[in-house]
UniProtKB/TrEMBL annotation:
Keywords: Heme, Iron, Membrane, Metal-binding, Monooxygenase, Oxidoreductase, Transmembrane, Transmembrane helix. This is Cytochrome P450. The chain crosses the membrane at residues 20-40. Heme binds at C449. It comes from Neoarthrinium moseri. It comes from the Eukaryota. Its cofactor is heme. The keyword Aminoacyl-tRNA synthetase does not apply. One of its GO terms (molecular function) is oxidoreductase activity, acting on paired donors, with incorporation or reduction of molecular oxygen. Pfam families: p450 (PF00067). Belongs to the cytochrome P450 family.
Length: 502
């Protein structure tokens, strides 16, 4: 038998094979980057984003996605943010690609919103399958089967009682309160009460039960990495890493609450208890399976609490930082209460008759929309021309929510200023158009966020009741809150002093 020549042995050595593999990878990366750049070369954006995901990675690691996306306005209405990502701040483009008859399906970006092996309404890509599950859930979310307003009232009353008994500052007692965490506990109690018929008691416990909120903050950062970067998406949901995802057997974090929710669902199905006046009962009555109920109720917990908490915290921050607006809203609240024009807690219909309150809600949502960007749709196979720009088939186009909310074309001058009067000093037609644009943050058409009704009920009540009962003052006005932004916002250390309204 002839021996293998020594030069072949050198080529087959581990060092040589490693070098060859690395060289092939570098060559593949360069070629694929050139192809990616060339395909969307006509769409402006940060140069590094035209051939890599480094722009997104930098935003994630620095927690600065919001200011970076606002800064994209300088490139125009269609901006490239990745090899296959384009975002827009144009409301008309978003209505076009999200319309009922649109041929733009969801992009695979959505699949990373899963937090267990099962898909839920937000992560499903197949339009027909999503419509089927949505039909089972709509009555629970809309209020047809669930008394949403009564449930929110119960939690608001408890919030006011809790602040009065635990968090008030007086002339003899200084009680710093992290309003960011208090509001987060409130929204968690609201959504668990509506979903399962009983709140999980975060506010009553006055603590982060099971380390849940800390785990969600970590999850938001990790999930943003996986939704924005396909390689991380593949890694995160590969069979090799399923063990590190939150699971019902966990003793803390998101997994613990998944386990609690799973236990409640299992007990309901075991007893065939379909008539409970909560979301879970509604889902069951409309044919949702056990697995669907577990996934969908957990989705309401994550998506329905943190986003609303962001809207409440941000609006409160702008209010207490803007005395002119704070005092005007306070006067409207006190006048409505003293004239006995409102209930306690205020009803949604009553709140809608208070013009400045409505303007504050809309302006707060505009200044800090809970979702920074996302909701990507994939261009149809043949591509499509939008505003004179050709979008090749398969390109993911999503909303740049924070930039859209800072659009001078949509909202007039001074978009960086918290000024609710912009919704009152215009024609009725202009106001309706601004409201429609603000509403796009929830999606539009068939892709409208199912939890919109719950969020608006909370927003129509919470500011009125907090300012009816209390006054708020930031303790650290030069650093009122620690904020980071990914696809969503996180807030911590929003320290305030709360006093009883005189």
């Amino acid at each position: 038998m002839s021996s293998i020549p020594s030069n072949y042995l050198v080529l087959l050595s581990p060092t040589s094979l490693t070098g060859t593999g690395l060289g092939l990878f570098v060559l593949w990366y360069i070629l694929s980057s050139v192809v990616a750049w060339y395909r969307l070369r006509h769409i402006p954006g940060p140069f590094i984003a035209s051939f890599s995901y480094l722009w997104h990675m930098g935003n994630i690691f620095l927690g600065c996605a919001s200011p970076e996306h606002i800064a994209l306005k300088r490139y125009g209405s269609l901006v490239r943010t990745g090899p296959n990502y384009v975002v827009t701040d144009d409301p008309n483009i978003l209505r076009r690609i999200n319309g009922a008859r649109s041929s733009w399906p969801r992009d695979s970006w959505y699949t990373s919103s899963r937090f267990d092996p099962n898909y839920h309404m937000l992560s499903l890509l197949d339009t027909a399958a999503r419509d089927t599950i949505k039909a089972k859930l709509t009555s629970g979310y809309s209020g047809r089967d669930v008394q949403i307003e009564n449930g929110v009232n119960t939690q608001i009353e408890f919030l006011v009682e809790t602040i009065r008994s635990r968090y008030l500052s007086t002339s003899t007692r200084h009680q710093p309160t992290d309003l960011a965490q208090v509001i987060r506990y409130f929204t968690l109690d609201v959504i668990t009460h509506l979903s399962y018929g009983t709140s999980f008691g975060f506010l009553a416990a006055e603590q982060d039960l099971y380390d849940y909120t800390n785990s969600v903050d970590r999850f938001i950062r990790a999930i943003t990495l996986s939704v924005d970067i396909p390689l991380f998406r593949w890694i995160a949901y590969s069979p090799l890493l399923t063990g590190i995802m939150p699971k019902a057997s966990d003793k803390s974090g998101m997994g613990k609450l998944i386990g609690i929710g799973q236990k409640i669902v299992n007990e309901r199905f075991q007893d065939n208890e379909k008539h409970a006046p909560d979301m879970l009962g509604s889902f069951m009555r409309h044919g949702a399976t056990r697995e669907e109920c577990v996934s969908e109720t957990m989705l309401t917990l994550i998506a329905g609490s943190d986003t609303t908490a962001t809207a409440i915290r941000s609006t409160m921050l702008y209010l207490i930082s803007t005395p002119r607006v704070y005092n005007r809203l306070k006067a409207e609240i006190q006048e409505a209460a003293s004239d006995n024009r409102v209930s306690s807690p205020i009803g949604v219909d009553e709140a809608k008759r208070l013009p400045y309150l409505q303007a504050v809600i809309l302006e707060g949502f505009r200044m800090r929309p809970p979702v920074v960007y996302g909701q990507y749709k994939a261009a149809p196979p043949g591509g499509e021309t939008i505003n004179g720009v050709f979008i090749p088939g398969g390109t993911a186009v999503g909303q740049n929510a924070v930039a859209m909310m800072r659009s001078e074309k949509a909202f007039g001058a001074g978009v960086d200023l918290f000024r609710p009067e912009r919704f009152l000093e215009c024609s009725e037609e202009a106001r309706r158009e601004m409201e429609r644009t603000v509403g796009l943050v929830f999606g539009t058409g068939r892709w409208m966020c199912a939890g919109r009704t719950v969020a608006w009920v909370e927003l129509n009540k919470i500011f009125f009741e907090l300012l009816r009962a209390f006054d708020f003052q930031p303790i650290y006005p030069t650093k009122p809150v620690d904020e980071e932004s990914y696809a969503l916002f996180t807030h911590k250390n929003m320290w305030v002093a709360i006093t009883e309204t005189a």
